[in-house]
């Protein structure tokens, strides 16, 4: 059993996020889903991103840290879109991180420090307009240089949150493959 900290997208902790968390829990993992928006949810990414910018990234990271304070020493951080950026930050800096799962987000514009031996797995749609070219490759390179296993997967299409069953972006075939790969990643711990 892995302790998974699953971080929501800019839409907030929605019913879709709860369904995703349940999927990981049914596979035998202890799943924690901190609500870094304190109950706020949004119907569109632009409004959610605006809210995250109002709060500030460092505030969101602090909220994740506070939510994880009593979870123990071995954590896998996973996140969706905005949540992937938060999971990445925790994987980069939190000494309890044992792995990082990035769904529809993550990456660095330039090489950076990564924790030695903390593996990372990332998932994107190939034509996702929210994906910044080269940034995930830079993260993979930084992680590999730190001695971490790093892998990323591209899926057909252009939708963003294709793994969230409650969004119009949902693509069942791609989502099923994403969850199969993510669960195999978690089984390594």
Automatic annotation (TrEMBL):
Classification via InterPro entries: AB_hydrolase_fold, Dienelactn_hydro, Dienelactone_hydrolase-like
Coiled coil (residue ranges): none
Protein name: Dienelactone hydrolase
Domain Dienelactone hydrolase positions: 4-188
Entry keyword Hydrolase: yes
GO molecular function: hydrolase activity
SUPFAM superfamilies assigned to the protein according to its UniProt record, in alphabetical order: alpha/beta-Hydrolases (SSF53474)
